[in-house]
Specification:
By secondary structure, the protein is of the alpha/beta class. The chain contains 8 helices and 14 strands. The longest helix is centred in the C-terminal third of the chain and has 15 residues.
Length: 270
């Protein structure tokens, strides 16, 4: 990481990180109505933090990514590909104290901004951010995790290196028994269907899609091992308990699972 803080310019409620003229990656921060947002390479909001509640999940797609808890309530280790503003990483760190989190972020600049402006913690015994290539990292046979979370968008589209069939197959190979992959996809991406097919091919034991509350994002869950049908009554019971614990809309997650996945009146079919 850079020793000196990044230089910024105030631009009518936003801060733009100064960069070398030949560097295409522009990182800037905006603030509106008490919410600080991170932008990378475009005006698209990559991450957001409510300044009064820095460890909570402001964006609906980040809350939906936590839907994995309906199927894997207590992962001991989480590997995240892509940090952004660190919303999900901070949430897991604060609300799941028995979980070890490791994050792979390719941009040193993004890590600098996340730590200085989005309250991402420094590395410690439970939390580590590594500057590196996420696709390369999951190809290493000595890497293992109970849960892998991938959010690999730049300012324009899903980063190709973390959306290939080889990448998703490597993710499955890195998962411990009973493990899951969680992927954030943008439904409007022209490559959405192809990317979803790759995940399904890499995870033959089963996949699920969960649309985020704000239309556009779709969270995909990939199961390392066959889970079989899960009754709606079981999911509703889990949702009630999780909602009380985490104060997230797990009842809506269960309803969302009905929209995009095989099911009957009694069960969700994985």
């Amino acid at each position: 990481m850079e020793n000196d803080p990044p230089e910024i310019m105030n631009l009518s409620g936003s801060w733009r990180i100064r960069k070398p003229a030949d560097d295409e990656e522009t990182v800037y921060i905006s603030e509106k109505f008490g919410v600080r947002s991170l932008h990378i390479g475009s005006d698209t909001i990559q991450s957001a933090m409510r300044i009064a509640a820095p460890n909570e999940l402001e964006l609906s797609y980040t809350r939906s990514m936590m839907g994995f808890l309906l199927f894997n309530e207590a992962p001991k280790s989480v590997l995240m590909i892509g940090l952004g503003g660190g919303s999900v990483a901070k949430y897991v760190y604060q609300h799941m104290p028995d979980t070890i989190i490791r994050v792979i972020e390719i941009s040193e600049r993004v890590l600098t901004v996340a730590q200085r402006y989005f309250e991402v913690p420094e590395n410690n015994a439970r939390f580590e951010v590594i500057v590196g290539d996420g696709a390369e990292f999951v190809s290493r046979p000595d890497v293992h995790a109970d849960l892998i979370m991938a959010d690999g968008y730049d300012g324009k589209s899903h980063v190709e290196a973390v959306s290939t069939l080889a990448f998703y197959r490597n993710c499955r190979a890195r998962l411990n028994p009973g493990g899951m992959l969680v992927v954030n996809l943008w439904g409007g991406d022209r490559a959405f269907n192809d990317t979803l097919k790759r995940i399904e091919q890499a995870f033959p034991a089963g996949t699920l899609c969960l649309p985020a509350e704000k239309l556009g994002n779709v969270i995909v869950f990939g199961f390392r091992d066959a889970a079989g049908p899960v009754s709606w009554s079981t999911l509703e019971e889990r949702a009630g308990a999780l909602e009380m614990r985490y104060e997230l809309e797990f009842d809506r997650f269960v309803a969302g699972l009905r929209k995009m996945n095989r099911h009957d009146d009694n069960a969700l079919i994985i």
